[in-house]
Design a protein that fits this description.
globular; mainly alpha
Length: 302
């Protein structure tokens, strides 16, 4: 069991590092080379095809019709809803701000557990949640628009919503993972997300200058390399590793690994000039880190 927990922790480290780099890669691609909604569809369709191909080589126990429907709906609404808000948000704000809201996932997991799973709410946890909300509000209300974030307020709100949706996705995934295998789970989840993506793209239209330029013989190699990285690593491999973490770790522990996204994104963003150092962002990060300490660590120590 110890080896499985080590494997689960290493899986989450690798997954969250790739997710951190994903934010910087998406900021490069969106919306210049791909619109946010087209980007969601491309990612979901690619991952669905990749996981169904992988499933041809991996033998897992069969699933019932009820389980297939549950997984499909989780993908169509949960995973797609997360990516919908996440990519729209990051196209309007900076990577560091989006990572700040991503790091609030442990707070949402706890709140959902209190409301729906009747987990006990102690004084320390209430204080932690209050501090976390304060950090989120500080980031949302103080960040202005500039050349790096053309609509920071809307982008930050969308990233906040995406972190809540992903917390719900983690909780439901944890429950479903007790019944089905990892590859089977990802096949149907991304299948549902891909269907939602195709429907939305059919309604709002396809906006992908990168593909249009290639169609007319103009190849821009750097965006293609970055898109390939996004599809293979943060989309396919990262989402493949998350269920491995969920299988052997608590949902809140998996959520806490979102701090690695914040660290990686901040370092890379400042290095590449995708964000500028801001005292309000620094204070917001400190407040949210403190809030999760109260919610997860201080209570256990007591």
């Amino acid at each position: 069991m110890k080896d499985k927990k080590l494997e689960a922790n290493l899986s989450m480290v690798a997954s969250r590092v790739m997710s951190g780099l994903n934010m910087n890669a998406l900021k490069f691609l969106l919306p210049l080379w791909l619109s946010a909604l087209t980007g969601v569809t491309v990612r979901c369709v690619f991952a669905a095809v990749a996981f169904w191909i992988t499933g041809c080589f991996v033998k897992e126990s069969s699933v019932t019709k009820r389980q297939r429907i549950g997984l499909f709906c989780l993908g169509a609404f949960g995973l797609y809803g997360f990516m919908f808000c996440y990519l729209l948000g990051i196209s309007k704000t900076t990577p560091v701000s989006s990572a700040i809201f991503n790091s609030m996932q442990p707070i949402w997991v706890f709140l959902i557990s209190v409301i729906f799973l009747h987990e006990k709410a102690t004084l320390m946890k209430v204080i932690g949640i209050t501090i976390g909300f304060g950090g989120a509000l500080l980031c949302i209300l103080t960040q202005g628009n500039d050349d790096l974030a053309h609509d920071a307020f809307t982008g930050n709100l969308l990233c906040l919503i995406s972190s809540i949706v992903f917390a719900i996705y983690l909780i439901v995934s944890k429950k479903l993972l007790q019944e089905v295998g990892v590859i089977t789970m990802m096949k149907y989840i991304f299948g549902g997300a891909a269907v939602s993506g195709v429907i939305v793209s059919f309604i709002v239209g396809w906006d992908a200058p990168l593909f249009m330029d290639a169609w007319h013989g103009e190849w821009h190699w750097m965006p293609w390399v970055i898109l390939a990285f996004v599809l293979v690593f943060p989309t396919y491999l990262s989402y493949f590793l998350v269920p491995i973490g969920l299988k052997y770790l608590k949902t809140t522990v998996v959520a806490i690994y979102s701090y690695l996204i914040l660290v990686v994104t901040t370092v890379v963003s400042l290095s590449l000039g995708q964000d500028r150092f801001s005292w309000t962002q620094a204070i917001a990060i400190l407040m949210i880190c403190t809030s999760v300490y109260f919610v997860e660590v201080a209570e256990k120590k007591r």
